[in-house]
Design a protein that fits this description.
By secondary structure, the chain is mainly α. The protein folds into two domains: 90 residues, putative rabgap domain of human tbc1 domain family member 14 like domains (Helicase, Ruva Protein, domain 3), CATH 1.10.8.270; 129 residues, Ypt/Rab-GAP domain of gyp1p, domain 3 (Cyclin A, domain 1, Orthogonal Bundle). It contains twelve helices and no strands. α5 crosses α6. The protein is globular and about 60 Å long. Keywords: GTPase activation. InterPro entries: Rab-GAP-TBC_dom, Rab-GAP_TBC_sf. This is Rab-GAP TBC domain-containing protein.
Length: 227
């Protein structure tokens, strides 16, 4: 009937989006041969069929790809991706988590680095933190070389159990802090900072960033304890 036609049309539209993204996903990585791209496509198509109300959104392939590289098994990767999406789905446009991340970043930087906050506020006011959008959407996947994605993700997942479920905020703040002097010395505005972080993608020192993020958690904890 009409409902079935709508369902198939919707699925067809999603398949088209998936196809475009699968072809572009990590094309320079040795793992993504035609056979493994087929696995990636199968995982995405199965997930979307099971979650048609959400559908496919740009970036989902980016979250599946590292899991597939490590696990190399289609069914296992699908299961793990499903679990990952219980946390990550809210970051996509149909969820509301992104605005919360931005608001929390605004609060954090005001507390931990008021000088940086003032610069952002004065230079065209980019305290909306939209330049962090890709960071939160993909758990920093496009900011790092492949070898570093795994340790970054493991820290984020572990932190949810032992430190803070909001550890991604501290990683984002650590990224800003790491380049603090460059940002301040050049009085960067919103366009500058977008361009800067796009150019710096895959050039960050993940170990240092993670260490700084842990220190920022402790810094905030100390402030709270000493109130």
């Amino acid at each position: 009937g009409v409902l079935q036609t709508e369902l198939l049309d919707n699925f067809g539209l999603n398949l088209h989006r998936i196809e475009k993204d699968v072809q572009r996903c990590d094309r320079n990585h040795w793992f993504f041969t035609p056979d493994n791209l087929d696995k990636l496509r199968n995982i995405m198509c199965t997930f979307v069929w099971e979650h048609l109300e959400m559908g496919y959104m740009q970036g989902m392939c980016d979250l599946v790809a590292p899991l597939l590289v490590i696990l190399q098994d289609e069914a296992l990767t699908y299961s793990c991706f499903g679990q990952l999406m219980t946390r990550m789905a809210a970051n996509f446009p149909t969820g509301g988590a992104m605005d919360t991340h931005f608001a929390n970043m605004r609060s954090l930087i005001q507390i931990l680095d008021s000088e940086m906050f003032e610069l952002m506020h004065q230079n065209g006011d980019y305290t909306h933190f939209y330049f962090c959008y890709r960071w939160f959407l993909l758990d920093f996947k496009r900011e790092l070389v492949y070898e570093d994605i795994f340790s970054m993700w493991e820290c984020i997942w572990a932190a949810g159990k032992v430190a803070s479920p909001h550890f991604v905020l501290f990683i984002a703040l650590a990224l800003v802090q790491y380049y603090r002097d460059i940002i301040l010395d050049n009085s960067m505005d919103f366009t500058d900072i977008i361009k800067f972080f796009n150019e710096m993608a895959e050039h960050h020192d993940a170990k240092v960033i993670l260490r700084m993020a842990r220190d920022l958690v402790l810094q905030l904890q100390t402030l709270i304890d000493n109130k």
